[in-house]
C-alpha cells in the first residue's frame, strides 16, 4: 500500500505542475481577438503625431502665415507640428510687365513666374518647380525620419505655394495624408505624370479656388481636376463665388475638418 500511495502522489504532483504551466502560458498569451505582436510605443506615437507644411504665395513669407494655425483648434491637432518656411529671394520674370528691372524684381519666390494673371495656358518654369520640389521633399523626409507616419503629413499652399504643393505631393514617392491647393495651378505639363508613383496617386487632393480671382484665373484652377483625373489622382474641387485672390475663413475651416477626418482614419488603422 505504501508504494501505491507514493505512486499516486507522484501522479498528482505531475498533474498539478502541468496545470500550473498551462495557466502560466495562458497568462502570457494575448487576449482573444488581439494580435500576438506587440506594437511599439514609438510606432503608436508616430500615428498620433502629425505634420502640416504650409507654403506661402509669391512675395510673402512663412512667419506672416503662421496665424493660420489658429483655425485648427480641434483635439486632433494637439500633437501637430507646423512649419511655415519662407521662399528664397530671386528675380521674378512676371515683374517685367510692370516696368520693373529687366531681369525681374527680386522677391521671395519658390520658382519663376513668367506672366500674371496666371491662366490655364501660361508658360511654366518646370525646372525651377522641380528644384523647389526637392527642397520640400527634404522637409518631409526629415519629419518621416523623426517618426511621423507619412499618412499624417499634409502639405498645403496658397497661390504659388499651392502650385508647389501640388507638384510636391504628386512627385513624393510615398502616399501622404493629403495636399491642399488654394488658388493654385498646375505648374508643369502632362509629361510629368509619368513620374508619379503608384503610392503618390493615392494621396488625396483638396483644391479650393475663388471664382472672382483675377491673379490666378479661375480657369487655371479648373484645369486642375481634369489633369489629376488623367493621372489617376483623387481630387475634391471647391469653388467659392465672389472670392478673389485671397484665403477665406470658410476655406480654412473646411481644411480643418478635411485634415481632421484623415487623421482620424489614420489612427483607426492601428486601433
UniProtKB/TrEMBL annotation:
SUPFAM superfamilies, sorted: alpha/beta-Hydrolases (SSF53474)
UniProt key word Lipid metabolism: yes
Annotated Phospholipase/carboxylesterase/thioesterase domain residues: 47-260
Cleaved signal peptide residues: none
Entry keyword annotation includes Hydrolase: yes
Superkingdom, taxonomy of origin: Eukaryota
Annotated GO MF terms: hydrolase activity
Stored InterPro entries: AB_hydrolase_fold, LYPA1-2/EST-like, PLipase/COase/thioEstase
Pfam hit, one: Abhydrolase_2
Keyword terms of this UniProt record: Fatty acid metabolism, Hydrolase, Lipid metabolism
PANTHER family the UniProt entry points to: LYSOPHOSPHOLIPASE-LIKE PROTEIN 1, LYSOPHOSPHOLIPASE-RELATED
Family designation: Belongs to the AB hydrolase superfamily. AB hydrolase 2 family.
Protein name, UniProt field: Phospholipase/carboxylesterase/thioesterase domain-containing protein
Species: Urochloa decumbens
Amino acid at each position: 500500500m505504501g508504494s501505491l500511495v507514493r505512486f499516486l502522489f507522484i501522479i498528482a504532483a505531475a498533474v498539478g505542475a502541468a496545470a500550473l504551466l498551462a495557466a502560466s502560458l495562458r497568462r502570457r498569451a494575448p487576449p482573444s481577438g488581439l494580435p500576438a505582436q506587440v506594437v511599439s510605443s514609438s510606432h503608436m506615437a508616430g500615428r498620433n503625431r502629425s505634420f502640416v507644411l504650409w507654403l506661402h504665395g509669391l512675395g510673402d513669407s512663412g512667419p506672416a502665415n503662421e496665424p493660420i494655425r489658429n483655425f485648427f483648434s480641434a483635439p486632433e491637432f494637439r500633437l501637430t507640428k507646423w512649419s511655415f518656411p519662407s521662399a528664397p529671394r530671386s528675380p521674378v520674370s512676371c515683374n517685367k510687365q510692370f516696368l520693373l528691372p529687366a531681369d525681374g524684381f527680386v522677391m521671395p519666390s519658390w520658382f519663376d513666374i513668367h506672366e500674371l494673371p496666371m491662366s490655364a495656358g501660361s508658360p511654366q518654369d518646370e525646372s525651377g518647380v522641380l528644384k523647389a520640389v526637392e527642397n520640400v521633399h527634404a522637409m518631409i523626409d526629415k519629419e518621416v525620419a523623426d517618426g511621423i507616419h507619412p499618412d499624417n503629413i499634409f502639405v498645403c499652399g496658397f497661390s504659388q505655394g499651392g502650385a508647389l504643393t501640388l507638384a510636391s505631393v504628386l512627385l513624393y514617392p510615398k502616399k501622404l495624408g493629403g495636399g491642399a491647393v488654394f488658388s493654385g495651378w498646375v505648374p508643369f505639363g502632362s509629361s510629368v505624370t509619368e513620374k508619379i508613383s503608384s503610392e503618390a496617386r493615392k494621396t488625396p487632393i483638396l483644391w479650393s479656388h475663388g471664382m472672382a480671382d483675377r491673379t490666378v484665373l479661375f480657369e487655371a484652377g479648373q484645369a486642375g481636376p481634369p489633369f489629376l483625373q488623367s493621372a489617376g489622382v483623387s481630387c475634391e474641387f471647391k469653388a467659392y463665388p465672389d472670392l478673389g485672390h485671397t484665403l477665406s475663413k470658410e476655406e480654412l475651416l473646411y481644411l480643418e475638418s478635411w485634415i481632421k477626418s484623415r487623421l482620424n482614419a489614420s489612427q483607426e488603422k492601428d486601433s
